[in-house]
Amino acid sequence: MARMFYGFNDKYMVTATVRRDGSSVLGTGHQYFTYPAFAFGWNVDREKFMQSVTWISSLKLRVGYGVTADQNISPYQILGNLKAVAYNFGTSLQNGYLVTSLPNPDLKFEHTDNFNIGVDFGLLSNRINGSVDVYTQKTYDILQVESLPLSNGAATTIVNAGNSSGKGLEITLSSRNLVGEFKWTTDFNISFQHSWITSLHDGLQQDIGNGWFVGQPFNIIYDYKKIGIWQADEATKAAVYGEKPGMIKVQDVNSDGKIDASDRQILGSYEPDYVAGLTNHFSYKGFELTAVAFARMGQHVAVSYLANNGGFFNLGRYNQYNLNYWTTTNATNDFPRPDASRSPLYASTLQYQDGSFIKMRSMSLAYNFPESILKNGLIRSLKVSVIVNNPFTIYAPLVQKGLAIDPESNGYGGQDGGASGFSGNALGRALTIGLNIPQTRIWSIGINASF
Predict the structure, then answer these.
(1) What pLDDT does residue 312 have?
(2) Parallel/antiparallel/unpaired status of strands 92-102 and 156-160
(3) Rounded distance between C-alpha atoms, residue 169 and residue 173, angstroms
(4) Higher pLDDT, 415 or 256
(5) Residue 416 in this model has a pLDDT that exceeds 70
(6) How far is CA 275 from CA 192, 278, 289, in A?
(7) Three-state DSSP class for 31?
(8) How many Cα atoms sit within 13 Å of 86 on the Cβ side?
């Protein structure tokens, strides 16, 4: 790696970097990749024409372009993998090997071109500081685990499966709201990001088994669309689709009077519209109070137990989940009628829920003992604090509906594929929530002292 920095008159700065990486996990002829980066900065506040603008304390413009590379795959993927397996040969059991993933000697670096424009600023004698960044990304030769048809004989292979683009906006603000004896400072950040696939391998426009669609994010929801529950006055129309009141009603996309694979559609993404954080710090004399909040808004999640055939319906005399089921006296559109004889048709459509949430991440209260109390003792300074992590949830539709204990996703995978046609790897990218133990609420007491 080599880097050059040049600055002129403390106003203009240029940085240039070039790097070359090598990786033994990639194929021969593809094991090295060279990529550059350039950045330019301009301290606008140092210019003469800015001297009369007193309310601007600092102002810096930034422009950057760079390439990053990734070869984050396990060793030996270019060789494929085998698994020991037993098979019958005549009257005896013999040991053999099964191909679990196909070799791919043509694997190469995944790389991303990044372009960024940013501004750093300070206002009102630096009472307000912040930065705004706008960026675009283009990623090429994306390394992905590709699921293969069962007829292939192997389940997966690692491929450079297409390209993607992305864009985003990041804003960071810090303010000193009160600066007297009672002090109050605030730190805020928010980021918007959107990415989509621009091309797939072999010129495909979609690869349903792997959940990839040109023009869509990598982690999308593709299934039938639940539009309600068949009601009593819709019995005749429901019969056209072989259903009856109380069953899940899905959208007939092509209006052909039947529900089949052609009626599946993209329902959304597991990616949030934006992620934000807010920290407030208050202090008065020796007391300090800090509160940190975090939000993920606009994302979908798969509430896996709602589509679990063995745990939702078909339970006979066992207790069912306490949900808003349809009955002849409760004409709801939330959940279908309970049926001990079978799981409902299109049960997978029940799991897709709004996963937005705002949580209080942590709160702390501290007291700094004044020097007047400590000056005659061995202790020079003493601070006692009480901290709680994950104290409460501010907003979460999942919790308000009683569908989850904790709105924050606790893993990937575990999604019921339903009729999506997705294979294991696509389902494994689903952002899932189950009825498990919520995040631990931790209380702690701390003492900081110097002697």
Answers:
(1) 55
(2) parallel
(3) 13
(4) 256
(5) no
(6) 7, 11, 24
(7) coil
(8) 5
323, 388 contact by CB (below 8 A): no
Number of residues written out for the chain = 451
Q: 353 near 286, Cβ under 8 Å? A: no
CA 203 to chain centre: 28
Q: Decide: 344 and 256 in contact? Cβ < 8 Å.
A: no
Bridge partners of residue 356, in order along the sequence? none
**Which residues, 6+ apart, have CB-to-CB distance to 17 below 8 Å?**
1, 2, 3, 4, 36, 37, 38, 66
DSSP codes, 137-149: EEEES-EEEEE--
Which residues fall within 8 angstroms of residue 288, CB to CB, at 6 or more apart? Answer: 281, 282, 364, 365, 366, 367, 368, 385
- Contact criterion met (CB below 8 Å) for 62 and 117: yes
Q: 48-84 pLDDT, tens per residue?
A: 999 889 999 999 999 999 999 998 888 888 888 888 9
Name the DSSP class of 236.
H
Q: Is the pLDDT of residue 412 over 80?
A: no
Is residue 374 predicted with pLDDT exceeding 90? Answer: no
What are the start-end ranges of the H helices in 318-381? Answer: 371-374
Cα-trace Rg, the chain:
29
Mean pLDDT of the chain: 89
Q: Is 22 exposed, middle or buried (0-12, 13-18, 19+ CB in 10 A)?
A: exposed
Q: Which helix (H) or strand (E) holds 115?
A: strand 110-123
Going 103 to 104 to 109 to 112, the CA torsion angle's sign is negative
Using alpha carbons, list the distances in angstroms from residue 160 to 106, 137, 138, 214, 266: 9, 17, 14, 15, 24
pLDDT of residue 79: 86
* Cβ–Cβ under 8 Å, residues 268 and 399: no
Query: For residues 390 and 358, is the Cβ–Cβ distance under 8 A?
Result: no
- The mean pLDDT value for 28-53 works out to 94
Q: What is the DSSP letter of 335?
A: B
Q: Is the pLDDT of residue 249 over 50?
A: yes
Strands 265-269 and 248-250, bridge-based pairing: unpaired
Mean predicted confidence (pLDDT) in 76-98: 87
User: What pLDDT was estimated at residue 61?
Assistant: 97
Rounded Cα distance, 148 and 156, in Å: 5
**Other beta carbons within 10 Å of 88:** 8
pLDDT of 310 reads 45
114, 170 in Cβ contact below 8 A? no
Among 310, 304, 258, which residue's Cα sits nearest to residue 428?
Answer: 304
